[in-house]
Design a protein that fits this description.
Elements: H1 19-48, E1 52-60, E2 66-72, E3 79-84, E4 91-97, E5 104-109, E6 119-125, E7 128-135, E8 141-145
Antiparallel strand pairs: 1-4, 1-6, 2-3, 2-5, 5-8, 6-7
Length: 149
């Protein structure tokens, strides 16, 4: 039987790793992930649950346009997309939503029988104008959308 010569100890570069130390390091890492992830979650949840007041306005001299408007994530209907055909100008719509994931949007389409006049739209969120556009006689559509956040 041949004897196995003694082997030199494994190189640890001066660091001794024990199972309790590795477990403690893993726990610290987990706590950091939970704290950071939880903080981000709280920020997102607070962002989602903030109520907003939204108002659309369309004005102009084009007769009776068709107006399309939406707010994705409306608290009452889940998703709200509607239209008003033959609207009398000036036209406005105001409502309240509790979901910040909403993206407000309004669009007016010139009636086919109108080739003159102007249209304008304004989008208000929480009392502030976030979008305003105008369209001349050559433009069949005017649109206002909430900017990307």
């Amino acid at each position: 039987m041949t004897a196995v010569p003694p082997q030199p100890p494994a190189r640890t570069f001066g660091i001794r790793r024990s199972k309790p130390a590795i477990a403690a390091l893993g726990c610290v890492g987990l706590v950091i992930v939970v704290l950071v992830g939880g903080s981000i979650g709280v920020l997102i949840w607070g962002h989602l649950k903030t109520a907003r007041d939204i108002r659309y306005e369309v004005s102009g001299t084009v007769g009776h346009p068709t107006i399309f408007y939406q707010v994705d994530g409306d608290e009452k209907n889940g998703e709200r997309r509607e239209q008003t055909a033959g609207a009398t100008l000036p036209w406005s719509m105001r409502f309240h939503t509790k979901l910040m994931i909403s993206r407000a949007f309004v669009q007016a389409v010139r009636p086919a029988t109108s080739s003159t006049g102007t249209m304008a739209c304004t989008l208000w969120i929480d009392g502030k104008v976030v979008a305003h556009e105008t369209a001349g006689a050559e433009d069949p559509i005017v649109s206002c959308a909430e900017p990307d956040r």
